[in-house]
Write a structure and sequence with these properties.
The protein is of the alpha/beta class. It contains ten helices and eight strands. Helix 5 crosses helix 6, helix 8 runs parallel beside helix 9 and helix 9 packs parallel to helix 10. The protein binds zinc ion.
């Protein structure tokens, strides 16, 4: 039995047919964790869908209305890059509910992993790049609304830049409720001058994105820290960059919760990625995030985000390894 919860529902499956995004990965990961004895059935908790009220903490009423009534324009549907359906809307609402539940459990147990989510290309008023709504942002805003956290940090290790996260947390809150308390009055973002970091620092959520520069999205709105990685870098360089980003971020910002997007797509055999990490390197990456969070006493909620390896089994292995790394590093067995 794991010392933390895994959040999963068969309803995470995205009904998008034959697609480079193999949405059956969620079910396969669930099965593999059980089959290998990494997790027991009692380690899993089943989420409810997010409520519309939760979704509206991040997304505009107009966009939510379009999603729920099937009235996206042809261009908006195209931008999603997954075929719209009401079933798909339900699956995304459930993934968002899963991220909320994972955040809640992470605050109790130090870590929790949703075997879904990480839809970081969703914006307040539109979706793109396989992402309809931003489950991680919704979870953060819900935890803040409930007074469970004041600040959060996204650590986005998907190979694609977290453009939705950068935009949502750039201080342009278009929907949602005020924060439960005022930001720290001693907080002064002027330290960023000359550091080469972005200037979109929100007062309550710090965004770190480690991604391949020459990849989607073409326009990358500034995160608090963007690590624009060159094509083809391997484990060593990647881990050094991640270590730098984490220590730089945590020296300036003290989050109540880390939201780790453990994308499997920096893998060297990924079809939509151009980095060269190995499966072992990706596990070390997970370990580095967990070790850092544990050292800082910061709870971590994990979502899976992307993963498009040529062989589905590699994507599954990489995601399962994230659970193993959490067990080894945070669960007291490491
Ligand atoms: Zn990705």
């Amino acid at each position: 039995m794991l010392p933390f919860k895994l959040v999963y529902s068969d309803g995470y499956y995205l009904p998008i047919g034959s697609h480079v995004f193999r949405a059956e990965k969620y079910k396969c990961i669930h099965e593999q964790l059980l089959a290998c004895g990494i997790a027991a059935p009692s380690d899993f908790v089943v989420p409810d869908p997010a409520t519309d009220q939760d979704v509206l903490l991040v997304h505009t009423p107009q966009y939510v209305q379009k999603l729920k009534t099937g009235t996206l324009s042809a261009r908006e549907e195209l931008e999603l890059e997954v075929p719209y359906s009401l079933e798909l809307v339900r699956a995304f609402w459930l993934n968002a509910g899963g991220s909320i539940l994972a955040a809640d459990h992470a605050l109790k147990d130090g870590v929790a992993i949703s075997l879904g989510g990480g839809f970081h290309h969703a914006f307040p008023d539109h979706g793109e790049g396989f992402c309809m709504i931003h489950d991680v942002a919704i979870a953060i805003r819900r935890m803040q609304r409930d007074g469970k956290i004041r600040t959060a940090m996204t650590v986005d290790c998907d190979v694609h830049q977290g453009n939705g996260s950068a935009t949502i947390f750039a201080g342009t809150r278009k929907a949602g409720e005020p924060l439960p308390s005022a930001p720290d009055s001693t907080w002064n973002p002027s330290w960023m001058a000359g550091t080469g970091m972005g200037n979109s620092l929100a007062d309550d959520v710090f965004t770190i994105s480690l991604h391949q520069q020459n990849n989607y999205p073409e326009f990358k709105p500034p995160s608090s820290i963007d690590m624009n990685l060159p094509d083809g870098i391997g484990d060593g360089e990647y881990l050094a960059c991640l270590g730098n980003a984490l220590s730089m971020g945590l020296s300036k910002f003290k989050p109540d919760l880390i939201c780790y997007l453990a994308g499997a797509d920096p893998y060297r055999e990924d079809q939509l990625g151009g980095l060269s990490l190995t499966i072992e390197g990706l596990k070390e990456r997970d370990a580095l995030v967990f070790r850092t969070a544990k050292a800082g006493g910061i709870p971590v909620m994990v979502t899976l985000a992307g993963g498009y390896a040529l062989k589905l089994e590699d994507t599954i292995t990489i995601h399962c390894n994230t659970v193993i790394a959490a067990r080894e590093l945070i669960g007291g067995q490491g």
